[in-house]
Amino acid sequence: MRIDSRRKKYVNMKAQKTLKFLRILFAFIGLLFIVLAITFAIIDYRLGNSAKVYFTMLNPVFLIFFILGVTFFSVGFIMIIYERNSNTKHQMLRENGRKIYAAIEKINLNTSLRVNGKHPYIITCKWTDPATGNTYFFKSPNLWFNPHLIIAERNIDTLLVYIDRDNPKNYFDAAEELEKYTL
């Protein structure tokens, strides 16, 4: 079976760009609604001044736009902050974490997420700490390419995982690095 690596790379990049676009879009729409809410509040106030109508923040148009704005902005902002924090955590674990190799247990589709009609894959790995005998399970981040083919073709049975030296439950699964084999 021939693997079209250009198509896989394109699908992966397209999904990542779509998610980034959605984060920014939500924040932008939120800001737009907040600006519209403030605009409606100011227009009412100006009309109210000339007609001696009392200004109220409970104007339904203001409230609708303001609530929508805060909701959209909050979702977009939280997604942007979460992504930034994840990247910082991953970088810190790469630089300061302990490198281990965990056995690949299974590969599943993450059916709770779909971008452009595609579900990402998740790899679950298992590792037993030789010092304590404790067993840990690690899940990869969402992978927007099919890791089955790469793992089978390269006969890979373990994945690199960076763990916090003090708390192995704080980890970063480097399964994304499998993508370099698609090129």
Spell out the blueprint of helices and strands.
Elements lengths: L4 H47 L8 H37 L1 E12 L11 E8 L6 E5 L7 H8 L3 E6 L7 E3 L10
Antiparallel strand pairs: 1-2, 1-4, 2-3, 4-5
Helix pairs in contact: 1-2
Low-confidence stretches: 1-11
Specify the biggest β-sheet. Answer: 5 strands, antiparallel
How many β-strand stretches?
5
H and E order:
HHEEEHEE
Structural summary, described in words:
- By secondary structure, the protein is an alpha+beta fold.
- Helix content is 50%, strand content 19%.
- A five-stranded antiparallel beta sheet has the order 3-2-1-4-5.
- A hairpin with a 7-residue loop joins strand 4 and strand 5.
- It is elongated and about 70 Å long.
- It starts with a helix and ends in a 10-residue tail after the last strand.
- The model is unreliable at 1-11 (pLDDT under 50).
Q: How would you describe this structure in keywords?
A:
single chain, 183 residues, alpha+beta, 5-stranded antiparallel β-sheet, 3 helices, 19% strand, elongated
